[in-house]
Each structure stands twice: as structure tokens, then as C-alpha cells.
Amino acid sequence: MSQTDKLLNGSEYTYEATLNDGGSSNPKPARGRSTGALGGLLGEQNKPIHSLLGKKANSIHGNAELGYLTPIAVGRRELFEMVPMTAVFGLQKKERSLSQAFASYAANLDMMGDEEKYKGMSDAEKERYLSKASLMIMDDFELDRTVVTTPLIFAVFVAAMAQFLVGYNTGVMNAPSNVVFPDHSTASWSIAVAAFAIGGPFGSNIAGPLADSRGRRGALLINTWTFLLGGLVQTFALDMFSIIISRLIIGFASGFSSVLVPIYLGELSPPTLRGMLGTLTQFALVIGILISDFLSFPLATESNWRYLFFVTALTAAFQLLCAPFLLESPRWLLSRDPKSKKARYIIKKLRGLHYDYEIDIEADNYISAARVQSCEPTGESPMMQMFHDKNVRLLVVSSIVLQMGQQLCGINAVFYYSTSFFEGVIDNPLVGTTIVGAVNVLATYAALLLMDSCGRRTLILYSSGGMFLCCIVIVLALLGYFQNIIALLAVNIYVSFFEIGLGPIPWLIVAEMFDAKYVATAMSVSSQVNWTCNFVIGISFPYLNLYLGAYSFVPFAIVLFCTFMFALIWLPETQGTTPEELQKMLISKNSGTNISVSIEEGKAINPIDAEWKMAMDQLRADEEKAMKDGTYDYGFKPIEG
Questions:
Q1: Choice between 198 and 62, residue whose per-residue pLDDT is larger
Q2: Which is more confident, 634 or 459?
Q3: Helices (H), 86-237
């Protein structure tokens, strides 16, 4: 059997790093939870990694004590610092790239930790060893994906219901336009629909400050009460003015939710889960649109439309029933008090941790990430800092342009008014609207698959180009050049192209490509631009449809053409840094860190057993020294007379 086989197939391993503080004779161990088959990483002699790593690897706990990090723990800290604390659809690619980069880095550290053991290996054997070692270390990073605790499930469930309500109220006004106070004017209904987008910017603007002052959990409860109030006002509306007021309130809550939910889930979850949770909330939103379409079949009538609106209040009330199970964000608690015991208790519940050292390391990760992901005070706003930084200026402009393109392309004209648009195109316009909602859900899933293999710029080009062609086909079909069924088909393809590019990418490039310290500001600006353009579409499309008729999609085609040209000429590829580039960056970043790793083949030691063994060894050494000095107490003393 080759040396590689002995190392990889021999036994379990546990990462253990010993970090000497200036040559101290009492090195302190730091534990990782990795268990695999590297041959054991807890030996009796510790060897330094290599000459480039000249300083000690440590962290400062909230109680000001010195802590020590294993390679795996260092990797987790890198993930905390480099993955934004926000749950964004499609962020999985960045999470995996970072995990892969550090797994490879840690595997190389392991090999360099005991050069004698690997000296006899051929290059092919070393490559095989490194490959398998990297995969097993990746498994450790991915452990967070499998440890999903009940408190985290409740948080995701309640937050997903908030995003469900955003989607539901995006589509709920589509079908009942002819049955809610039937004598209303086009202007009053347009204002009622657009009021949703008027409230949105105010909600998104106040969400951040309120979440900072009242806590993430407190802000989420305020948001839920706002949804409940808006739903009740809409359900018991006396006239169109009441509908408009309720839409303003619900729009405010929706804008609030669009900012708060990603922050709340991002701060509760480990880095490797943030992309997945962002995906879940995005699916909750598009499913909300689809459910509003399905419920419109029995409820979009003159006698039942109030029940259609009551779903908002009912869902918000159910959220409030789940409120006692919601936990506060540990990041928010630690930002107010790094020694917070409550934060550590919450971390223990969220992660399912058992030992104090694990909890302290996780708390340190939050504190370190908060420090890295905040702008340095320079006397100017973070927005101006971004514009003055030539490395991110183009990304700022790109994110604003793409947010404008996302809304001004007319996608919400479809979700707000597709039922009226399909009148005269198919026999039952509501069927067409529901088909569009179903296609929207399926296209969201397709987008998730494409994001792993396609560049962000490429997806924007395909998305805007495909939507542009669909607009042309829709116009031609409405002019009679094609059958009406072609118009329905073109609208569905138009929605599909939106979901693979212009839907998620404008938000994703902010989370993927901006420095972590700029993400919150860039998200806030993007949200403001998005809601403002949303309002423009909501208020204007009924008039476009009224005065332009078959040509109502021409303005959207112009916007899409401009978006395509911007992406083609100026938009940088934003898919993210490759794992190889990330690994070089990690080596450079940690070149001042001394992580000592040792390997003892054939042994697998539980971390707690290892600590007990070290304590016993130290006690035995003290006893032997006392015996040698003649000061050892053997358990008896001379009888004193």
C-alpha cells in the first residue's frame, strides 16, 4: 500500500493547531470539528508549517482573552468575513468558491505540517492526497448545511412568510380590477396599484435604522404588525380611497421586508447557508404571486374579493403566533456588547453547539466579520466613499442601471395588469395570468441552475436580449401578424428570460462583487432605485395600454435595448473570483500567521479527550518536578506532638 493510501485510508483525523505565544512552554490547543481520514492530526510533537508563517494565529474573544484557531476555524472566519451577512438568491456560487479555496489551502498546510511523512510520495500521490484531503475539509465546511436547528427553521419560516406577502400583494390586484368597487376610474385603480410602490421606498429606507435601534427581531415584528394593519384596512375598505391607503401601508411593509429579511436571515445563518436561504425567500416571493393567481379563481368576484385581501391579514396573524419562537440576531447583540451572554446563548441554540469554546469561536467570527464589513469613519458617507473608490465606481453605476432596467423593462406591468392585458387575447384572462405565475416559479428554479455555470454578464445579455425579442413578438401579435396564442407564449418566454437574468442578477452582483463593507449601502441604494422605478411602471402602464394599445410594449423594448447595450459595452463580468485566485489571496492574507499542525498516523482522538490528556500530562509534569525538588506532598505529614 502506498503512503497516500496509508494516510487517507488508515484512520480518522481531527484538526488540532498549537500556537506558541512567543515561545511559551505551555502551548494552548485549538480544536476543529473535522473528522475524516487524513491519518490523524493530533500528535505529541507539533511542527511549524513553513518559514513564511512567522507570527501567531489568534483571535481576541469578547472577554479579551487570547483565543487560538485551527486551519478549519481560520477557514470559517474567512467565510464569515468575505460572505456578506445577507441572504441573497444565487449567492451559493461565492460560498462554494470560498470554501473550495480554503479547503485546498488547509490541505496544503496539512501536507507542509509534516514534510518527512510525505517526502517519499510521488507527485501523483501528493496530488491524489491533496485532492481527497480538500474534499474532506470541504465536507467540514459544508457541515453547517446539515445542522439546521429548530430556532433557525422558525426564523426562516417567519421571514419567508414576509416575502410571501410581498409576492402575494404584488399580484393580488391583478385579477379583481373589475369587481372591487366596479365604478372606479382608471386613474383611481392605477393609483391604488402604484401606491404599493410608493410605500415601498419609505419602508426600505426606514428598515435599516429601525433594525439597528430596535433589533432585527423587534423590527421584524413591527413589519408583521404593519402587514396585519394593511391587510385589515384593505379587507374592510369602504371605498377606493381606503384601498389606496391600505396599499400604501402594505407597500411600506413590503419595502421594509425586502431590506430586513435578507439581513435577518444572513445574520442568523452560517455563511454556507446564506445563499440557500436567499433562494428560499425568493421562491416564497414568486410562489406568493402564483397563490394570488390561484385564489383569484374562486375569490375575485363581487361578493368574495374581501376574502382575497384578507389572506394578507391572516398570514400576518399567523406570523405573530410564531413570534415567541423567534430569536434576536447574535450579530446585533454582539455589536452592542461583545461580551453578551444572550448572544452566546442564541448562537448555541442556532448552531446546536455543546462546548463553550465552540460558542466563543463563533461569537468571535461575528465580531470579526462586523469589523471587516463596516466602512471606516472618514467624514463622508459610505455612498460617497464608493463613488470616490475608482475600483467600485463602475460597479455602483452598473448596479443602479441594472435596477432601473429590471423595473423599467415592464415586468411588473405583467404582474400588476396581465389580466386586463390578456382581455381579448384569450377567452379567460385569469388563466393566462396564472400560467404566467407558474412559469415565473419554474423560471426561478432554472435561474438557480444557470447561475452555477454562466457568467453574470452573459446572463444579463441573454435576459435583456431575449426579453427585447419577446416585446417585438408581443407587439406584432397584438397588431394581428400572429395568432393571439403567440402573444400569450411570448409573455411567458418574456417572464422566463427575466428570471434568468434581470430578475436576480442586479441584486446578486451587489452581494458578490462589492467589498463586504459596501454591501449594505449598495443594497440600500439599489432598493431605493428599484422601488422608484416600480412606482413609475405601476402608475403609467394603464395609460400606456390605453393610449398606445398594441404598441404598449414598445417603451419596454427600448429600455431593454439600452440595457443590452450597456451590458455589452460597459458591464464587467461579475461571476466572481475563481477558487485559484481566492487561494492566492488567502496565502497572502495569512502569510503572517503561524499555524502549527502535527500528524500522528493511526490515531483518532476526541477533542475533549485530547484536552483532558493535555491537562493530565501537565499535572504529571508538575508532580515529577515537585518530586525532583523535594516539595511533593505524598499525602501524609509527620504526626505533630
A1: 198
A2: 459
A3: 92-113, 115-118, 123-141, 143-146, 150-171, 186-214, 216-235
In this structure, is the dihedral angle defined by the CA atoms of residues 242, 247, 250 and 256, taken in order, positive or negative?
Answer: negative
Q: Give the pLDDT score at 18.
A: 35
Cell for 607? Answer: 477533542
What is the DSSP track for 485-548? HHHHHHHHHHHHHHHHTTTTHHHHHHHHHS-HHHHHHHHHHHHHHHHHHHHHHHHHHHHHHHHH
The C-alpha cell that represents 255 in the structure block? 419595502
Residue 426: DSSP 8-state: B
Q: Confidence class of residue 114 from pLDDT cuts 50, 70 and 90? A: low
Strands (E) across 227-372 are located at none
Residue 618, Cβ density class (10 Å: 0-12 exposed, 13-18 middle, ≥19 buried): exposed
Cα-flanking dihedrals φ and ψ of residue 596, to 5°?
A: -100, 125
pLDDT, tens digit, 9 for 90 and up, residues 279-338? 888 899 999 999 999 999 999 988 899 999 999 999 999 999 988 888 899 999 998 898
d(CA 480, CA 372): 58
Burial of 454 (0-12, 13-18, 19+ CB in 10 A): middle
Nearest to 137 by CA among 214, 183, 71: 71
Strand-pair category, 66-68 with 596-597: unpaired
Which of 446, 399, 452, 443 has the alpha carbon at shortest distance from 563?
399
Grid cell, residue 87, equals 441572504
| Grid cell of 197 as nine digits | 410602490
Cα distance between residue 83 and residue 76, in whole Å: 10
State the pTM of this model. 0.76
Q: Specify the DSSP element, H or E, that contains 611.
A: helix 607-629
Neighbours of 153 (CB within 10 A): 11
Summary mean pLDDT of the chain = 76
Give the pLDDT mean for 261-270: 89
Calpha distance 170→168 (Å, rounded): 5
β-bridge pairing 66-68 and 16-19: unpaired
Distance, in Å, from the CA atom of 430 to the CA atom of 438, rounded to the nearest integer, reads: 12
CA distance 54 to 543: 69
Cα–Cα dist 403/529, whole Å = 6
Other beta carbons within 10 Å of 639: 5
Beta-bridge partner residues of 29: 18
Using CA atoms, how far apart are residues 348 and 359, in angstroms rounded to an integer? 6
* 492/155 Cα distance (integer angstroms): 33
Using only the alpha carbons of the chain, give its radius of gyration. 29
